[in-house]
Amino acid sequence: MALDANIGSIITELEAKALIQSFETKFPGEITSSFIGANNIENILAQENCIGLRIYNGYDDENEKISLVLVGVDGDEKDMLNDGIIYDRIATCPPLCPTEGLYVK
Q: Scanning 1, 23, 29, 67, which has the fewest C-beta atoms within 10 Å of its C-beta?
């Protein structure tokens, strides 16, 4: 399957809650969600030939927590590295958790 700008599927709220609960059961106490601002997502997507985002799971040894790394992907399905925009250090829950939504502690 080739990557393109339409990869991904809409799921129901019930399916999303089940996935999130399953993660919480398997990994109690871990980061349950992450937030990145729309401007930063737009910065990645605005890069020439960017067809989407790749999200890597990382681990921040200093803070001992899961860390997501976001990078643009080009039309050749390659990470946009050389002078590309890469984000990390996004807001996580905990401590910045939603008060309403798919998962509330």
A: 1
Residues in a beta bridge with 69: 56
What is the rounded CA–CA span in Å between residue 82 and residue 96?
Answer: 32
Overall size of the chain counted in residues: 105
Total-model pTM? 0.85
Where does the pLDDT of residue 58 fall: very low under 50, low under 70, confident under 90, or very high at 90 and above?
A: very high
| Measured distance CA(35)–CA(89) in Å, rounded | 10
Taking the C-alpha atoms of residue 52 and residue 55, their distance in angstroms, rounded to an integer, is: 10
Please, are residues 92 and 65 in contact by the beta-carbon 8 Å criterion? yes
* The pLDDT value given to residue 29: 87
d(C-alpha 66, C-alpha 84), whole Å: 23
The full set of domain ranges for the chain reads 13-93
- CA dist 69 and 56 (Å) reads 5
